[in-house]
Amino acid sequence: MALGISRQPNDGGVAKAIRAPVLAESSLQPGDIIFRRGRETVSHVVMSLDRASRYSHVGIVTGSPGDLWIVHAVPAESRNEVARVKRDRIADFIHPD
Question: How far apart are CA 19 and CA 36, in angstroms?
C-alpha cells in the first residue's frame, strides 16, 4: 500500500492524497512525497513501534516528467550492510520485492 502527497501548481498549495494501486506515475511530479508500508524486517519493526502509523517508509519524487525517481533512506538490516540514501524507480519503491 502506498500513499502519494502531491502539490499541484494550480491547487492553491493544498496537498492531495493519492492511494496506490491507483497511484500512477503520470499523476506525480518532482517534490511529491510518497509513503508506503514495507515488507522488510525493518519495516515491521517501525510499524510495531508506531502502531498509529499506516506506513513505514517515505520517499520524495525527483527527476523530470517521463523520468521520475524516488529518493529514500534505506537502513542497514545486518552488520554487513550500510545505511544509505538511494534512488529507485517509482514502481520499485511502491511495490518492493
Answer: 10
Each as own residue / partner, the long-range contacts of residues 63-69 (CB below 8 Å, 24 or more positions apart, any chain) are 63/30, 64/30, 65/29, 68/25, 68/28, 68/29, 68/30
State yes or no: cis peptide before 96, omega within 30 of 0: no
pLDDT of residue 57: 82
Spell out the residues 6+ positions from residue 72 whose beta carbon is closer than 8 angstroms to its own.
57, 58, 59, 60, 85, 86, 88, 93
pLDDT at residue 2 greater than cutoff 70 = no
Express each pLDDT in 58-79 by its tens digit.
Answer: 899 999 888 999 999 887 777 8
